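User: Quick sanity check before I run a bigger batch. Here is a single chain. Can you write out its predicted 3D structure?
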Amino acid sequence: FLLVLTSLAFAATWHTAPIVIGIGAIAGLILALIISFTRSANPVLIGLYALCEGAFLGSLSGMMEAQFPNIVLQAVTATFGCFFAVLALYHVKVLQATPVFVKVLSAAIMGICMLYLVNFVSSLCGHPMGFLSSNSTLSIGVSIAIVVIASLSFVIDFAAIDSAVEQGVGSGQAWRFAFCLLVGLVWLYMELLRLLAKLSSRR
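Assistant: Done. Predicted structure follows.
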């Protein structure tokens, strides 16, 4: 259901004004923080988050598609390809959410968040970090590493869902798990879109 909402908002904002990107991103971030810190499973809040992210991604993707034809289809295909690949590896227990795995991955995700925050502040000062925004070999390598980390983050979500099912957690929590998966898909799609844009710009 959340993917449907996101997809509808995505289609509705395709090729809209760039301001939609900022509005959708800010609204989505605020809703994500509220849902995360309050540990809410409110379907209305989570549904609004899906709509905001869909609007943000739709407008952003429209701009990227105009610059790099077919990049959106490639990014969407790669996103779900990574998702189902990780799900398959988790199902056959090749990937497991061991305590060490969770600690290392959580630390990596926190590091990425700090890196993005520093880059955002640097960009406001007119000095963005080149290894994040350029199309250099180093920048592409960093993007590939982030894509791998974003993909592996689903292992933690899958393990949490399995644990909840085993403990008989109420069905109301399904909305929260769906929210977590959507956050991961949005993040992975954005990183793949960025990586493909870097690769396309080198041709």
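The longest helix spans residues 137-167.

User: Great, the batch can go ahead then.
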